TrEMBL record:
This is Helix-turn-helix domain-containing protein. Gene3D superfamilies: 1.10.1660.10. It comes from the Bacteria. Residues 9-72 form the HTH merR-type domain. It comes from Lactiplantibacillus modestisalitolerans. It holds the Pfam family MerR_1. Transmembrane segments: none annotated. InterPro entries: DNA-bd_dom_put_sf, MerR-type_HTH_dom.
Length: 80
């Protein structure tokens, strides 16, 4: 997205914007469910999008184990 500024957020900012507790974001990141693989890095709006997707799947009955297989496939499709 040429010309658009990527807004970066800290873990705490992402938690506040998403409504997902910081410890859950850390757990999801460590499980490999988010594109950002380092919880000490800054998160982008893309990471928030993926977090919203993960959270939606979990709220609708998927398990973290289910998503460990699914989310990498979703990421591949998004970048293809």
């Amino acid at each position: 997205m040429k010309g658009q500024m990527v807004r970066e957020m800290t873990l705490e900012q992402l938690a506040a914007r998403s409504g997902v507790a910081a410890d859950k974001i850390v757990a999801y990141t460590e499980a490999g469910l988010l594109p950002c693989k380092d919880v000490h890095a800054h998160f982008s709006a893309d990471d928030q999008y993926w977090l919203d997707m993960v959270n939606c799947f979990l709220e609708n009955g998927s398990s973290v184990e289910d998503l460990k297989d699914l989310m990498p496939l979703c990421e591949q499709c998004a970048t293809a």
